[in-house]
Structure formats: structure tokens, C-alpha cells
Amino acid sequence: MMLQENLQKWLTDEKARDQFVIRAGTDTEVLWNDARQSKTELVYKRSYWTESFVQWSPLGTYLATVHRQGAAVWGGANTFNRLMRYAHPQVKLIDFSPGEKFLVTYSSHEPSNPHDANRVVINIFDVRTGKVMRDFKGSADEFTIGGAGGVAGVSWPVFRWGGGKEDKYFAKLGKNMISVYETETFSLIDKKSLKVENVVDFSWSPTDPILALFVPELGGGNQPARVSLVQIPSKVELRQKNLFSVSDCKMYWQSNGEYLAVKADRYTKTKKSTYTGFELFRIKERDIPIEVLELDNKNDKIIAFAWEPKGHRFAVIHGDNPRPDISFYSMKSSHNLGRVSKLTTLKGKQANALFWSPGGRFIVLAGLKGFNGQLEFFNVDELETMATAEHFMATDIEWDPTGRYVATAVTSVHEMENGFNIWSFHGKLLYRILKDHFFQFLWRPRPPSFLSAEKEEEILKYLKKYSKKYDAEDQDVSMLLSEQDREKRRMLKEEWEKWISEWRRASEEEKLERQRLRDGEASDEEEEYEAKEVEVEEILDFSEEVLFEE
């Protein structure tokens, strides 16, 4: 059993700072982001802490490490102690349930017969006790349905968790079925899988036990594609939408489970090309109404889509590289709450990825890979750019859990400029740290706030009253930094004057010796000299040449 200490003590930091973990070379470090002081502060450092990667649990309680013998979780009030081990030889991948109750581990083993598929082992552990609650073993072919990803073609995570933070259900895609398990007995609901002919993908609501599943077109278009919403554990279908001439489909849930966007790529009448549209489901409304959205130019290629966390807006990057457009939409137009409306389109942006702040309102429009790390910090409330910047060759962008700071990183996929930058939410570069062989940067997640939505609104309403205290603290920090800066300059000046003084003393001590060496001449004074011009002839070369021969 785990030690009974306060594993959430880091949340009570007096400066309200956030932590992050980095891996560089053989070292793994957990650090405070001390943005006010424009620096980091070390919490814990360890060499060879993990053999491949580290991973925070979803609520930030534990840090998981991966080893040849299995996985381990670490935490503590003031440091990082090993709290539990999970034996699983040659473990390759791990995944926590959203409420941190369970840990899923995965390994793949080569068969003795090279013609056979790899053998897969998956264990589900109770995080606190370390007990194996259920294991799954079989051929890799049984775990590869639903597209490639992860390791050796396995779509990871194999088991997807549903029902929000309660960790009540988990499900796996199979051939013509979805197997849904409950965590009281770790057995199939109703002791049987949900039969869905030709199902190729499914996705849980982030907050409710609702499955969205996709079945592609069959019989050359005679049977249309469809998206269904299924309630768990009853397995009752809540809503279904048939989609005609669809070539592909992708589902995007909004973080509160209020909306589901289905991106459908459709064939044109000639079937020689495709265009994209969106089916927007309003999950919390009566009968789950669906709205169809097509872009102004429906032939535009969709490069990226992202919902505003906890909000009603979404952003879409569309068009052709190198300068696509970015459009913002709202599910609540001012004159009609039940209709989607376009807020604005930003033309010709060097962006191919969208990173919303966890609190909504602000977004980073990023140009990664071929765009060399272009960054635009955009305020969606005001529909205005706050700052543009660049982190050359940036590979990763991650907001801190409070939405106050953004980290951009260049990992070891590039040989040069490895390290990370920390920015304010409005795009001011606060500090930069270079690290050779830089592998990982991960903010420590925070659990959800205990405050009600009403209380949060009240705090926002009286923010100026609360902020006076923090303005005073900021001023104190600013004055401290100024004082530290002045002290640093004073010390440098003292050091310089001390150095000059020591050289003068040494020069004075050697004066008599210099005079003796110069036959009694005192030549220290620069004014006491006589300039003479001396001409020196020097033969540089000599050659003899015969001009006439008799």
C-alpha cells in the first residue's frame, strides 16, 4: 500500500506556481516554473530515472517511469518517493484512467515462428494497491483494429476510458463489435460485446457514459455511412445520422461533452475528388439536434480542427499551404443560441496547428515542422492578435494547466537548438533554457477546481478587488528584481575597481625594478617620451641576371 502523505501538497505553493518535468540526456528533472523571477527552481533531479519516457497521471498526483521489469509511480509531499511498482516485463506503453484509479501497461513479444504475429500482453493495475485487476493476452492482430499508431501497428490506447473521472467503463474496438467493460467486476457489460457491423472507430464523451461510433459506407454506397450515439450501460441508441458519399470521418468532442463535431470527407458526384463538411451535435439539448456546416469554400482542405476547452467556439485551419486561412465559429450566435455562426476568418497565416488555452479565450496559432516555429498569440474574445513570435524549429507546444504560460520546445529530433522557451499567455518571452539531447517537456496537470461555475463567475466579476493584493506582490517582486539587478551591478563595479587597484599596487611595487632595467630612466609617465624617425634599409632579395651574351 502507498504511504499516507499529502500527495497534493505541491498545489498549495504560496506563489501559486506550476511544476513541469523535463528529460535531457540521462537526467530527469522536476522544476517549478518561477515565471515572475524569469527562471526555474529545482524540485527533484535524478539520473537514469526511467529507461524510456515519463508520464504524469491525469490529475497530476503521480509521475510514472518505465523500466525493463515494469512501471513505477512516484510522488510525495516534498520530494518524489517511489510509491508503487507494477511488474510487467518489457513494458513499452502505459496509460492512466482519467480518475487515476487504474494503470494500463502494454508489451509486445516476438513469436518463435517468424510467420506468426507478435504476442501482446496488456495488464490493468489498481494504482494504489499494485494489484492486477485484469489481463488481456493474444495475437497483435486482435489489437490492431482501428488504425495504426503506438507500437507495431497497435492503436494506442487499446482500451479507451469512459464515464469521466469516475473510471467506471473502458472499451476496446473489435471486429464488428465494441467490447465495453465495467470496473466493478472487470467483465463485459451484460456479459457480451456491443455488436456493430463493420464499425471502424469509436470515441467516448469526456464527461458522460456516451459512445460515439462510426460505420463506413458499404455496398458501393447502397448502405450509407453512419454516426451513432449509444448510452452506456443500457446500450440504447440516443441519436443516429446517416452520411452519404463519405470517404472518411473523424470525431472531435468538446471537453465538457456539450458538443460533438464529426468531420466528414465526402466524394464529389464524379467521385474523382473529395470535399469536407462538419456535422455538429448538440449533446445536452433535447433530441440532440444536428447542424451541418460547410466552409465558404467547401473544397478547402482541412488542416486542423480544435474546440475551445469548456467553451462554445472552435477553430479550423483550412486551405492550401504555405498560407492557409483560419476561421473561428461559435455554437451560440448572438441572435440565435441554437445556430452555428462564423466569427471571423484570418487570411493567409503561416500555421498548421491550433493550441487553445485550457481556460479558453486565448489560442496559439502555430506553424510547426515546415513552418519553422511561427507563433501567433490570438485573443478570440477581441478577435485580435496579441503578439507574433518564432521559436525556430519548435517541435512541441504545451499550455500550463492554468492557461497563464505556454512552453515551446525543440526536442532531439533536431540536432541543434535543443531546449525550451516559456512565454506568457499574451506572447511575451519570459525565459529560455537550452539543453542538449532534449527529449521531453510535460507540465504537471492540476485536478479540476472545487469552485462552482457561479463562484468562478463571481471571482471574475470582482477580479479587480482580488488583484490589488497580487499587484502589490508583483510590485514587490519587481522591486526585488530591480534591487537584485542593482546589487549585481554594484558587485561587478566593486570587482572591477578591486582588480584595477591590485594592478596599480603591483605596478608600483615593480617601478624600481623597471627603472633599474632602463638604466635609471623613469619611463612610466606616458607624456615623457621622445619620438624619433629612423630609416632602415633592408635588402629583401638579390638576384643576378645576364642581359647580353657575346
TrEMBL record:
UniProt key word ATP-binding: no
GO MF terms, alphabetically ordered: RNA binding; translation initiation factor activity; translation initiation factor binding
Signal peptide: none
Keyword annotations: Cytoplasm, Initiation factor, Protein biosynthesis, RNA-binding
GO cellular component terms, semicolon-separated: eukaryotic 43S preinitiation complex; eukaryotic 48S preinitiation complex; eukaryotic translation initiation factor 3 complex
Superkingdom per UniProt: Eukaryota
Predominant location: cytoplasm
Region (Disordered): 507-533
GO biological process: formation of cytoplasmic translation initiation complex
Biased composition (Basic and acidic residues): 507-521
Acidic residues compositional bias, start-end: 522-533
Entry annotated with the keyword Cytoplasm: yes
Domain Translation initiation factor beta propellor-like, residue spans: 241-441
Compartment(s) where it occurs, according to its Swiss-Prot or TrEMBL record: Cytoplasm
Subunit record text: Component of the eukaryotic translation initiation factor 3 (eIF-3) complex.
Function: RNA-binding component of the eukaryotic translation initiation factor 3 (eIF-3) complex, which is involved in protein synthesis of a specialized repertoire of mRNAs and, together with other initiation factors, stimulates binding of mRNA and methionyl-tRNAi to the 40S ribosome. The eIF-3 complex specifically targets and initiates translation of a subset of mRNAs involved in cell proliferation.
PANTHER family: EUKARYOTIC TRANSLATION INITIATION FACTOR 3 EIF3 -RELATED, EUKARYOTIC TRANSLATION INITIATION FACTOR 3 SUBUNIT B
Family designation: Belongs to the eIF-3 subunit B family.
Protein name, as recorded: Eukaryotic translation initiation factor 3 subunit B
Protein source organism: Gossypium raimondii (Peruvian cotton)
